From TrEMBL:
Organism: Gloeobacter kilaueensis (strain ATCC BAA-2537 / CCAP 1431/1 / ULC 316 / JS1)
Protein name: Flagellar assembly protein H
Signal peptide (residue range): none
InterPro entries assigned: DUF2887 (IPR022573), RpnA (IPR010106)
One Pfam family in the UniProt entry: DUF2887
């Protein structure tokens, strides 16, 4: 499970977090339904859509971006235009793009700057969001905690989660998120070790939990491969040779190197 997928899970579990992020009244979350929308005829998916009960309220689109993508705005506006056409949508809307860091934002193209000037497109950066406020906002900030500090941060967050009046479903979803991030950051940890860190056994027999751990470990292995590619590039090895060692295409290696440029 990629980091952006974790973020969509977090916003689905705590929809008020979205309105807290954009500076609106969090009570608005009660008037919206968070959903993913797939337009099958043209094979694209909008993963984060806040659909209002009252059609007089704006429709919100959320795009979480944790990889460099020079074409993100071209893709986003193309998807929005197709969505509006297919749904015959004529109401008010706003698109919110959340980047991991400001350096990942290629900037809104000149053709679309009027949308940003009007407030219909807003950009946020996880590194600039404070870790003060609601529990959900702190979980959002936790995702950028360095590996060396992450285990201590998990302990801190577990205490806060248990102190909050959460439903059993919310607790289970949060534990699943924590397990995913732990498995990704520390792929050497066993299932028992992760359960011990989370101080829970309730997820042991859950198929979703097992899939979560597997996804996290796969992401951890992918990160190790990306680190290996960066080290080989630092030694000025030819990209073709790096691709052969990593068993990837030259284009995939170049994309990894581009995504790991210093901020």
């Amino acid at each position: 499970m990629k980091t952006d997928a974790l973020l969509y899970d977090l916003f689905q579990t705590f929809p008020a977090l979205f309105f807290e992020l954009i500076g609106r009244d969090i009570a608005l979350a009660e008037q919206y339904r968070f959903d993913s929308i797939e337009v099958k005829q043209i094979a694209f998916r909008l993963d984060g859509v806040f659909i209002p009960e009252d059609t007089a309220q704006p429709l919100y689109f959320l795009e979480c971006q944790f990889q460099r993508d020079q074409a993100i705005y071209l893709r986003l506006f193309a998807q929005l235009a197709l969505y509006f056409r297919r749904k015959r949508f004529l109401g008010d809307w706003q698109a919110v793009v959340l980047f991991a860091t400001q350096s990942m934002d290629p900037g809104v193209p000149r053709a679309y700057r009027a949308f940003e000037a009007s407030g219909q497109v807003r950009r946020f950066y996880l590194t600039e969001q404070v870790e003060q406020g609601s529990l959900a906002f702190e979980i959002l900030g936790m995702l950028r905690t360095p590996k060396r500090k992450f285990k201590a941060k998990i302990e801190e967050m577990l205490s806060k989660v248990r102190a909050e009046p959460l439903s059993a479903d919310q607790q289970q979803q949060i534990m699943g998120m924590f397990a995913t991030v732990l498995a990704a950051k520390f792929p050497e940890l066993s299932r028992r070790e992760i359960e011990a860190m989370l101080r829970t056994k309730s997820l042991r027999n859950s198929r979703a939990f097992q899939e979560t751990l597997q996804e996290g470990r796969e992401e951890g292995r992918e990160e190790k491969k990306r680190e290996m590619i960066s080290r080989m590039a630092a030694l000025q090895m030819p990209i073709a040779q790096i691709a052969e060692v990593a068993q990837l295409s030259v284009e995939q290696v170049q994309a990894i190197l581009d995504s790991r440029l210093p901020e």
